[in-house]
Every structure is written in structure tokens, then in C-alpha cells.
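Hi C.,

You asked whether I'd gotten around to modeling the 458-residue construct. I have! Everything is below, sequence then structure, no commentary in between.
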Amino acid sequence: MSEAASIQAPLALLPSLAPLLRPWLPQQRWFAGKGSALTGFTLVSATELLPARGPGPGLLHLLVGVRQPDQPAGSTGDCYQLLVGTRKTLPPALAHALIGRVGGGPLDGLTLYEGTHDPRLAALLLERLRTPGTLGPLHFERFDGAPAIPGGLAPRPLGAEQSNSSLVYGDTYILKVFRRLHPGRNPDLELPLALARAGCERVPAPVAWYRAATPEPFTLGVLQPFLHGSRDGWVLALDALASGDSFRTEARELGGVTAEVHTALADALPVVKLSGGQAEQLAAQMASRLEAAARTVPALQPYAPRLRTAFDAVAALGRRGRIWAAQRVHGDLHLGQILRGPRETPWSVIDFEGEPTRPLTERARPQPAVRDVAGMLRSFDYAARTHRPWNPAWAQACRDAYCAGYAQTSGTDPREEPELLRAYETDKAVYEAVYEARHRPDWLPVPMAAIERLASLD
């Protein structure tokens, strides 16, 4: 793979882009800094995947630091990956992807747009991944156990964007493009790769990926098999609720699947012990998140003292010598992260990135496996709350079946650690309350119902 074409006058590039990025970035679903002013930009890297002023559309790969007022002094801000298409004029079919027209700088007079929406540019990304190599600071790599990637697969964006962007190629592969970047290897590459090398078939193996070798290393995107025709556990659970079915059998299966993945992760990656001061530190972190959340969501304040007792109980057990195993976990497990294909094919677990709002160092830290269990238990509550009338008995039956399935496969019932399970479920519900208050206020009653229940436990 040849070296990237250099960008003329790189120092003039960002000043000419900033007037366009300032209004455009906050409108993107994956931009994390909504509601706060953009005070400046830093150009981390710029690479022409296709020449900006070539005979056809150009594709510019940018890593841009975005500064905002609430960030530490001297910080370059959050780093975002941008895939910017360039054309002299934008065809009507791409009008929805418009960023703006550049005035001045090396791209003067060109129209910029979101490149992942252009099939010609999206196809180029797959071509780069088909042939491992280096393009400027970008490194394209393949999993040595993966079959060759065929060419000519038609790309399309996958539905509504979330915290990342996804491209599907011919119903064969899906490329997840990470938008807000954190230094280091993203768990959504690290963990599936470790599981694939260990022979775990519950998780689709990475086929290829690309990364940046800038002063700080970043994982930029991961290509995996696309499980065409699959439906996620959330959709299946809602179907069961709508038809009056129990979903207990599926919940028990999901518990077993979770235990299988946890066992494989424990075999593939180090397991450590959590005790004493570490348990106190874990509890203190949870309590700190609760305090911050109560300032953001006033509805939490009346419950905060009782919720804090869940964290105090874990700290007290640690001081008395209780030891828990801590390992790598999924980190954001819920019904939407587990897929089942047609004709009763096995369940698959996806999206190991963890909660993207939390620092990568925290997401990569070994934790008790019950954290994932707590996430799934909260998901059953969410599903039940979408149904009218609310069916708490349905959620409780699923919770019990899930834990029973986990215990049958792993030999350890998460309900036998009630203090730890309550602490993690409380921490998750607090996280949900903040998220819903910020993004979906109409959903705030869902985590608040759990907050009320958890605050009443002894």
C-alpha cells in the first residue's frame, strides 16, 4: 500500500474547516459534547485516502481534538474520527450528508460531506481492509484466522447512528467506525480477538481492523461478520410481551450464554482478586457517581442516602476479608447486545466496547462478572416497562430464569452474592437515570422505578 498523498499547507487546513465543524459536530448523534460550546480544535492527523482534488470524489481521514469549556486546562479535548468526502458539487442524493463549502485553505472551494454516506467512499474503506498495509499514520490489519475478504460488496449505512457509525457490506460484513476515540486498544477489538483465538464461537470474530499510530494509539474501526437475519434479544423480548408469552426459556438460555462468555474470557485473559482496599475503592467510586448523578438529576436526591448503603455493604465485606474474582467482562450487557438468527440458530454476543462515556482505562479494568449480570437484569426491567400495563412479574420471572441459567452453566449463582449484585444494579440504575434525564426524559420513570425498589432493600 502506497504512502498517503500529502495535504498541501496542513497548518491552514483546520482553520478553514473549523467554521464548518463548529455547527455540524453538535448535530451528530455520536458527538458526546452536546449542550456545551466548542472552544477550539486541534488537528491530530490528516490523511487523504483519496485525493481531495482528484477526478472523482475525495476522502479525507481526520483525527480532530475538540475542546470544550468543562475540560481541564491544557487539554486537547476529546478526539473524534471524521471521514470527510470532498466534491466540487454535491449530488442531490448526498444532500443530507452536507457539512459545508470551504472558503480558504488547501480545500478552498470544495464541498465537504459525511463520507460514510457515499457508497463509492464507503467501498474504499473495505478495499483498504482487504489488503493489509500502511497509509500515513493509518494501519490496516487482518485477523490471521479469517478467510479472504471478497471484493465488490455493496455498502450501506446501518440505520440510525448511535455512539459510532456502522457500514454493512453486502449482508456479509459490518464495519463499526469508532467516532469518539480513547487512546489504546478498544475492547470491541481486544476482547472478541482474544475470544476468537481461544475458540469461543459465541462472539463473531474480527475479520480486519484499522488503527492510528499517532502520538497516542487509537483503534479506529473493526470489521466483523454481519449476522444477516438476526434479531436481538430486546426485539424478541418485546414480541413475547406483546403476545403474552413468558420469555423465561429464552432468559434462561441467555444466562447460560453469558456464563459461557465469562468462562472463555477468564480462560483467555488474566483473572485477579478484588478484596480489602480494592473493594472499598470500588464502593467509593460508585458512591461518587451517585453524588454526581444526584446533582444532575434532582429526582435521585431523596433516595441517595438509602442507595449509598448498597455501596457501603460492599466496602464493609471487603474490610472483613471477603474476596471476589475480577476478570474482563462485556461491560454494557443488555438484551440488545445478544442476537439470535433465523431457524433457532445459537445466540451470539456483540458490542464489547463497554459504556462509551466511561474512560477506556476503566472499561478495560477487570471487574466481577456480576457487573454484566446486573446489566442484563436491568434490561429485563426496561423491557417490562415498555409494555402497558407494566408487568413486574414478567420481569422478575426473567430475572430468576436468567440467574438460574447462569448458575447451571457456570456453577455459580449470582444471587448468592446479594450485596455485590445490589451494588452493581444500583450503579447501573443511577447511570441510566442520568442518561435518560439528558437524552430521553420520557424514559426517566423506568430507572427511577428501579431506584425506588433498590432503595427499599435492606
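If it helps when you're writing up: The two ends are 62 Å apart (CA to CA).

Thanks,
B.
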